[in-house]
Structure formats: structure tokens, C-alpha cells
């Protein structure tokens, strides 16, 4: 409950932010194009978050961070995202994700080429440091780790992240296809979520002593996650819900973007005419192919032209961040005490928005946010 003075401040901040373009729900064109590549019946907002997540994970591989001059030294902030998508079984989560990633495949192939070239150069340097010729580099070559791998123990994940960080390109990524059951069955996931929450803000995870050995430190690696959950499992199973709420409240609420679609997906309205149904599905596929043809060369161009010079924040964006921070602080106090997770998520919305702004600035090939 806000005091009268605080409510006035909240309204004034809302009006100021609205006048500067906030809260208008204008979806970036590249998100709309990405959604067009998905022909499944998944809910629209879920598709939008899937696309935003995949684009942010893609951009994070290029290691172009944000630089916020909030003190004399400033802060380097990685561009990354944590997304939780709750959906019913059969809402085409996997096929939707595969459709988005298809548009990114050619650009990821170039990133892999860059990573292999950097690994070869590193091997040549190691060879010369060992008193051998550069042509002896195969003896010292370490193949780059896969960008997308399954979740194991937290110590294994930390070694994996450290290996990724040693290269010039790559970012960490945690993918969980069924969050509810994994939380119940895998203690390792809980530890990995803890490490993820620590590393999300600045890409730094300190060493952890496990079985008399320390995990390697992570010093500034973008670390993202996409966590899928079946809403019937997470929301209706008492034990699973309790576990999810514990992890969400303590580690994820202020860092993640969550999508939950309580309404069932509407069936295609083809007026009972089977011919019209086929025509509608063909039109969706044609639209998807057209969107892919636009996105593929754009992503390739971004890989080829993006430098690793940090994105700087304009004075206007710095001010917007502070306005939004205070607005969210006040807005979170208006949220019902019956929904504390919503209050916590609202209070930190500015941080997630800043990281997304880094994604879109890089996609626009802008040197500033």
C-alpha cells in the first residue's frame, strides 16, 4: 500500500515513461519476423518470448556487452536472458523452437568457424611457447566445446562454462525441457539454477569447493537459460509447485521473464471447410519461408559486422533506467501480498529490460543503447 505522496510519484513516473515510449507494447519488427517462422499453434506471447530468447542467446555468443557508467570505473554487463515458459502438453514447444533456430543456423555455422579459427591460433601460440613450430599446433589443439549441451552436475557445468569462456566467442546456456519433473528428480538442477542466478547479472561465478576441489571461476561470461514447464505439472501438483516456488522466489523471480498462458489455444477457424484449412496452412508455411529468407542474411551480417566493443548507454537511457527502477519499486508495492512472486519480478523489471535493449541494439548494429 502506497502513501498518497508515493502514489502521486508512481503516477508521475508512469506518465513520464509513457511519454518517452514505454508501456506501448510495440513489438520490434524482428520479433514479429521471428514469430512468422513458427507455424505451430503455440500461443502468440509464448512465441514472442521464444524468439526474444533465441535472439538474445544468439547475440550473447558474440560477446558484445553493455557498459554502464554508474561509477568512476563503470560496469560491464553481459547481454543474456533467463526465460521460463509454462505451457500445456501438446502446445508444440519443441517444434516452435526448432523453427526459430532454423533461421539462425547459417549464422551459427559462421560462429563455429570463428571459434575453430581462434582455437587453432591458440594452439599455434601454445606450440611456440613450448619451443615447437607453429605447424605443430595440432598437438596442442583443444576442440571448442559445444554451445548447446545437456545439463550435468554443477561442477561439470562450471568446467564447461570455463572452457567456453577461454575462447573468443561463445556463451553459456542452460536448457531444461521439463522443469517440474527435473526439479523433483535432479538435485544437480537446483545447484545449476543457483549458479545461473549468481552468474546472470554480471557473468561472474566464483569458485566453489566440491569434494576437496574448486570449480573454475567464471569471470564475465554471458549465461542464459530457457526453462520449459508443463503448467499442469507445476501448478497443479502440490509437491512440484512447492519446489518450483522455492527456486523461483529465491533465485529466479528478479532475473527471469516468465510466460504463462492459462487459456487453451484456440483451434484454427477454417469454417468447417477442409480445403480452406489446407489453404490456411500453406499460407502459414509460405509466410514462414519468406521470414526465414529475411532473417538468415540479416543474422549472417550481424555476425560478420559485430565487434566486441561494449555498447554504451546514452544519457537518456541512463535516466530512463533510473526512472524505471524507481517506478518498478513503487509499482511492486501495489501488488497483492497474495502474489509475492509477481511483486519481486516487477521490482527488478528494469534490469531485464536493459539486457534486452542490448540485444536489440546489437541487432540494429548500433554502437549505443
Overview of the molecule:
The chain has 369 residues and is α/β, with parallel strands linked by helices. It has a 4-stranded parallel β-sheet with strand order 4-7-3-8, with helices on both faces. Strands 2-1-9 form a 3-stranded mixed β-sheet, with helices on one face. Helix 11 runs antiparallel to helix 12 and helix 11 runs antiparallel to helix 13. 32% of the residues are buried. Helices cover 56% and strands 10% of the residues.
What is this structure, in a nutshell?
With 369 residues, the protein is of the alpha/beta class. The protein has helices at residues 4-19, 29-36, 44-60, 93-129, 154-165, 179-185, 187-200, 231-236, 238-252, 274-305, 315-332, 340-347, 349-363, and strands spanning 66-68, 75-77, 82-87, 172-176, 209-210, 213-214, 223-230, 256-260, 311-312. It is 56% helix and 10% strand.
Under the CATH scheme, which class?
Answer: Alpha Beta
Number of domains: 1
Q: Approximately what portion of the residues adopt beta-strand conformation?
A: 5-15%
State the order of secondary-structure elements, H for helix, E for strand: HHHEEEHHEHHEEEHHEHEHHH
Give the C-alpha Rg: 22 Å
Structural class: alpha/beta
Low-confidence stretches: none
Amino acid at each position: 500500500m502506497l502513501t498518497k505522496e508515493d502514489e502521486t510519484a508512481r503516477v508521475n513516473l508512469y506518465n513520464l515513461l509513457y511519454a518517452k515510449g514505454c508501456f506501448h507494447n510495440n513489438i520490434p519488427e524482428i520479433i514479429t519476423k521471428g514469430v512468422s517462422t513458427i507455424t505451430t499453434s503455440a500461443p502468440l506471447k509464448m512465441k514472442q518470448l521464444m524468439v526474444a530468447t533465441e535472439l538474445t542467446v544468439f547475440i550473447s555468443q558474440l560477446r558484445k556487452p553493455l557498459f554502464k557508467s554508474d561509477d568512476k570505473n563503470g560496469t560491464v554487463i553481459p547481454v543474456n536472458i533467463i526465460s521460463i515458459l509454462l505451457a500445456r502438453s501438446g502446445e508444440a514447444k519443441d517444434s516452435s523452437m526448432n523453427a526459430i533456430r532454423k533461421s539462425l543456423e547459417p549464422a551459427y555455422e559462421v560462429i563455429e568457424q570463428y571459434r575453430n579459427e581462434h582455437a587453432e591460433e591458440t594452439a599455434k601460440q601454445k606450440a611456440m611457447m613450448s619451443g615447437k613450430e607453429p605447424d605443430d599446433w595440432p598437438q596442442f589443439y583443444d576442440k571448442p566445446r559445444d554451445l548447446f549441451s545437456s545439463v550435468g552436475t554443477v561442477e561439470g557445468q562450471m568446467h564447461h562454462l570455463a572452457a567456453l569462456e577461454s575462447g573468443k566467442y561463445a556463451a553459456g546456456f542452460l536448457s531444461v525441457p521439463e522443469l517440474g519433473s527435473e526439479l523433483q528428480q535432479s538435485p544437480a538442477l537446483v545447484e545449476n539454477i543457483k549458479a545461473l542466478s549468481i552468474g546472470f547479472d554480471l557473468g561472474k561465478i566464483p569458485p566453489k569447493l566440491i569434494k576437496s576441489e574448486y570449480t573454475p571461476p567464471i569471470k564475465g561470461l554471458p549465461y542464459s537459460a530457457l526453462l520449459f514447464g508443463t503448467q499442469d505439472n507445476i501448478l497443479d501438483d502440490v509437491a512440484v509447485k512447492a519446489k518450483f516456488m522455492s527456486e523461483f522466489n529465491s533465485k529466479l523471480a528478479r532475473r527471469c521473464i516468465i510466460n504463462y498462458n492459462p487459456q487453451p489455444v484456440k483451434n484454427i477457424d477454417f469454417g468447417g471447410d477442409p480445403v480452406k484449412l489446407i489453404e490456411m496452412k500453406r499460407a502459414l508455411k509460405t509466410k514462414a519461408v519468406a521470414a526465414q529468407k529475411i532473417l538468415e542474411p540479416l543474422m549472417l551480417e550481424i555476425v560478420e559486422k559485430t565487434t566486441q566493443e561494449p555498447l554504451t548507454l546514452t544519457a537518456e537511457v541512463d535516466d530512463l533506467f533510473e526512472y524505471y527502477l524507481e517506478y518498478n519499486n513503487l509499482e511492486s508495492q501495489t501488488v497483492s501480498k497474495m502474489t509475492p512472486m509477481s511483486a519481486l519480478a516487477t521490482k527488478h523489471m528494469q534490469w531485464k529490460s536493459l539486457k534486452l535493449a542490448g540485444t536489440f541494439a546489437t541487432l540494429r548494429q548500433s554502437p549505443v543503447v
